[in-house]
Amino acid sequence: FDDIRLEFRDMLKSQIVKGNNGLKKSKYITFTVEADNMEQAISKLERLEIDILSNLKNMGVRAESLTGEERLKILHDILNPSKTFYFSYNDLQRKESTKTYITPDEFNFTPSRYFKFGKFIGATSHFQILASELSDRMLSEFLDIDDNINISFHIRAIEQSEAIKMVKRKNTDIDKMRIEENKKAVRSGYDMDILPSDLITYGEDVKSLLKDLQTRDERMFVVTIVFMNFARTIQKLENSIA
After folding, report:
1. Is 189 domain-assigned?
2. Can you name the residues that pair with 196 across neighbouring β-strands?
3. Domain boundaries, position 182
4. Cα–Cα distance measured from residue 88 to residue 210, given in angstroms and rounded to the nearest whole number
5. pLDDT tens by residue, 74-126
6. Does the residue 139 lie in any domain?
7. How large a percentage of the chain has pLDDT more than 70?
8. What is the mean predicted confidence (pLDDT) over 34-57?
9. pLDDT-derived band of residue 12, with 50, 70 and 90 as boundaries?
């Protein structure tokens, strides 16, 4: 019975790590810098790495840096969910690329709505947010999705002067949309002051963002959120997307 107890204990520990539905969730932060040369880039990256790890530690989050092989394994596991990763930099031949070890056997983007990689079928969707801050609740809800899914947040900080110009352009676009809606209403005999609720809400959000940038000295972020669902059949993929 000792063998059975040991196996059962290992199974429970595995489930605790993965969650009740057997899914394992991993979270990664990737950051980049610009530099004039390799030496400067390494120095910048090392300082930024220390700052990020320190901030995460202050929030009670345990984090560790990844090696090159570990980063390759992540990419491999995303593109080859059912395969084991075998790689060592010692095995890398001269002029050989590491992508040889992580790309799947097949990439097929027909039909355009889906793409096939190896034995799996995937689909991606995305949306973009202009904001001076991101809600913790929104991040939490996305990361709490229980399914075979990769979610990536691509965050780019915009300088304040550039951000103000960008938001003003958005505001001008909304004003043009309002004028078009007013013209449609007049042609159809409706009250020209009645506008679509989505347009009103969007306009209010843009004005609020512009006010924050101009009066509260806030920065703006362009956040692109990409979802990648994958499954072995189109039916299962459709169910996960729905």
Report:
1. yes
2. none
3. 162-214
4. 50
5. 999 999 988 899 888 888 888 889 988 898 888 898 877 899 998 899 999 99
6. no
7. 90
8. 95
9. low
What pTM was computed for the model? 0.69
Task: Quote the CA–CA distance of 148 and 240 in Å, as a whole number.
Answer: 8
Name the residue among 204, 181, 202 with its Cα closest to residue 191.
Answer: 181
Count of the separate structural domains present in the chain? 1
The answer to whether position 202 is within a domain reads: yes
Q: What per-residue confidence (pLDDT) applies to 185?
A: 83
CB–CB of 217/160 below 8 Å? yes
| Residue 177 domain flag | yes
Q: Which residues contact 117 (CB under 8 A, 6 or more apart)?
A: 79, 80, 104, 106, 107, 108, 230
